[in-house]
Design goal:
Blueprint lengths: L2 H31 L2 H8 L2 E6 L6 E2 L5 E13 L9 H8 L3 H14 L5 E7 L1 H8 L8 E10 L6 H4 L2 E3 L2 H6 L8 E3 L2 H5 L1 H5 L3 E7 L5 E4 L15 E3 L3 H10 L5 E7 L4 E8 L12 H9 L10 H4 L9 H10 L9 E3 L2 E4 L2 E4 L4 E3 L1 H6 L3 H12 L7 H14 L21 H7 L23 H13 L2 E2 L5 E4 L13 E2 L7 H14 L13 E7 L7 E8 L6 E7 L9 H14 L5 H9 L15
Parallel strand pairs: 2-10
Antiparallel strand pairs: 1-8, 2-3, 3-4, 3-5, 6-7, 8-9, 10-18, 11-12, 11-22, 13-16, 14-15, 17-19, 20-21, 21-22
Length: 612
């Protein structure tokens, strides 16, 4: 045979073998090594479903369930898996227009062609059952269950808060969530979002050509179990909360009750309020819009935490304590009252007259006494200027909890108003003295406080000098695991001995002074009335108290907007709160009925509860 021919034959065979080897290696790589096509094929038969865990439940301090869960269903879509389907049929099932469906699908594609997006959310069990029978007609779509909140006792809306769908801006910062997930927006739901939300899981399921689930993939070997959120035990006494909201129906204002020894909030009422179930389900957006646009009553506004009121005469308690601590007066110091405090031709009137000491000044709420006490405090000869004296006063008042936030588990609180030295220097061009700001001595003028801050002041007085930051969650996970975040004892800087004359004056105010309407058989109460001036209408009715005096268990602050004298509405409401909490019943039923039946406002633009 021709050697040249033989050589060519060998070369051709080698080339063919080489080509065959390349094909074999390539096929081996595609079929064995490279998982891409295998994964694509599996994707047509296997679906990964994200499992959202149930949110943690919320209980009150006595184990009553106050926030529960209920199951709803969302129709999901993976855009890349969509095939031709009858849009008319799907629109009929969902009861939406074709244009709306197209809009939702386009939004899903923009978000991600391979990740699931919500097409219809919060379907009822009945709608889900009807849709499930027809899912084979809609390739690329599937249904997943979701957990929504429900409120067995529909109160405390401002404190419990609500959850809502996460925004696109939040998605950029939060890697845990995906489009359509829910997140705490306000209240406890926001403050304890990480504890309540739990940890997501996933299910790998087989689906047939008709888009119907056929069971678990690999018997669930690749599933990840969802971890439910942790349960919370709040500090609220939900029965007391419900009673407080009942007393405040038809009124604007707030009730805050604190357990002095712990800082635990027993009830916190902001009125007008709303049924928290209104912000759940399909009607949520419509109801929220109605609540938000009610500019007369502002039901979404938490007056207990955000409203900044002149505290009125209840603020005299703080000024008396500071004056004692600064050495300006003692419990025996007497100021004479001739019916008012004079500043040139201007007189701050006072309904009390005669020689007054600290105890009787508190008992009869003498304006003259506390104007003089405040003036002498900021004009104290220990200091070189009124600016220095005022700053010393301001240091004391902030240690008593004013002009700052408590920064606990109560989101969106206001810090109130305690002006700085610089503010007054600018206002009066550096030429001012104590008389320029003396109205602050009786809780008027430039001072502003939230109901929460005032209730905390009363807790400090009940404790004779210290407090724990007010909070609304006492246990996390189980009732044997206390919330340790707010256990630091905060000192007021006022010596305990200075509280005795103030407390005695408050006790006498209830027995023989301005707050006799607060008396309860068998319970000793220390209280202080107040009338907060309101430039926009009738004055606000204010009252602060704690009880029992011998062993304080509850400190209360009540403000009723446009309620007039402190003794007219705030005082009886606060005393009813004390009576109900300590006795678990109210015997003064005539007083109770009068408070409940008196309405100052009418609620308009009222949303309707979701029927889903």
């Amino acid at each position: 045979m021709n050697p040249l021919f033989q050589q060519r034959k060998v070369i051709i065979i080698l080339v063919m073998l080489l080509i065959m080897a390349v094909y074999v290696i390539r096929l081996f790589g595609l079929q064995v090594v490279d998982q891409t096509y295998k994964d694509r094929a599996a994707a047509n038969a296997i679906r990964e479903i994200m499992v959202t865990p149930p949110r943690g439940l919320i209980y009150d301090r006595n184990d009553s369930l106050i926030v529960a869960n209920e199951v709803v269903y969302n129709l999901m879509v993976i855009p890349k898996n969509i095939q031709t389907f009858d849009t008319f049929d799907l629109c009929n099932i969902l009861e939406i227009e074709k244009e709306e469906l197209i809009k939702r699908l386009e939004k899903a594609k923009v978000y991600s062609p391979i990740l699931p997006s919500i097409i219809e959310q919060q379907m009822s069990k009945e709608d889900y059952g009807y849709l499930q029978e027809k899912m084979h007609k809609f390739p690329g779509f599937y249904v997943e269950s979701r957990i929504l909140r429900s409120y067995p006792i529909p109160v405390a809306a401002h404190i419990l808060g609500y959850i809502g769908e996460i925004t696109e801006d939040q998605l950029k910062e939060e890697t845990y969530y995906q489009l359509g997930d829910y997140i705490g927006i306000s209240g406890i739901e926001k403050s304890y979002e990480e504890e309540l939300r739990g940890q997501k899981g996933k299910r790998m399921v087989l689906v047939d050509v008709h888009n119907r689930e056929q069971g678990s993939y690999k018997n669930g070997e690749e599933d990840v179990r969802a971890v439910p959120g942790e349960n919370l035990w709040s500090t609220l006494d939900i029965a007391l909360q419900e009673y407080g909201e009942k007393l405040m129906e038809g009124k604007k204002g707030s009730i805050v009750a604190i357990e002095p020894k712990t800082g635990e909030i027993l009830c916190i009422v902001s009125s007008p309020s709303y049924n928290p179930n209104l912000l759940v389900g399909k009607s949520r957006s419509k109801n929220y819009s109605k609540l938000y646009t009610d500019s007369v009553n502002l039901p979404l506004f938490n007056r207990a935490l955000k409203a900044c009121y002149p505290p009125g005469s209840t603020f005299k308690l703080a000024n008396g304590l500071i004056a004692e601590q600064e050495g300006v007066l003692t419990e025996h110091t007497i100021y004479s009252c001739g019916g008012g405090y004079s500043i040139g031709n201007h007189v701050i009137g006072c309904h009390h007259s005669g020689a007054t000491n600290l105890v009787s000044g508190v008992q009869h709420s003498c304006n003259t006494y506390f104007c003089r006490a405040f003036y002498n405090t900021v004009s104290n000869h220990r200091y070189h200027s009124v600016q220095e004296g005022y700053q010393a006063w301001r240091n004391h008042i902030t240690k008593l909890g004013f002009g700052q936030k408590f920064n606990t588990d109560l989101p969106y609180e206001s810090k109130g108003i305690i002006p700085s030295v610089e503010y007054f220097n600018k206002k009066y061009k550096n030429h001012w003295n104590g008389n320029y700001i003396v109205s602050m001595g009786i809780g008027q003028g430039e001072v502003g406080a939230t109901p929460l801050q005032m209730a905390n002041l009363i807790a400090i007085i009940a404790n004779k000098g210290y407090y724990y930051r007010p909070h609304v969650v006492r246990c996390i996970g189980d009732k044997q695991t206390p919330n340790m975040r707010y256990t630091q004892r905060m000192e007021s800087g006022i010596e305990s001995r200075y509280f005795n004359p103030v407390i005695e004056g408050m006790r006498l105010a209830v027995l023989h002074g301005t707050a006799t309407g607060a008396q309860i058989d068998g319970i000793t109460i220390a209280g202080k009335t107040g009338t907060a001036q309101n430039p926009h209408g009738a004055d606000h009715s204010v009252f602060a108290c704690f009880a029992p005096v011998e062993n304080p268990q509850i400190a209360v602050f009540v403000l009723v907007e446009n309620g007039g004298w402190g003794a007219s509405f705030a005082c009886p409401i606060a005393s009813l709160i004390v009576e109900y909490y300590l006795n678990r019943e109210v015997k003064r039923t005539d007083l109770e009925q009068r408070m409940i039946s008196t309405h100052f406002i009418k609620t308009n633009n009222k949303p309707t509860q979701n029927e889903d």
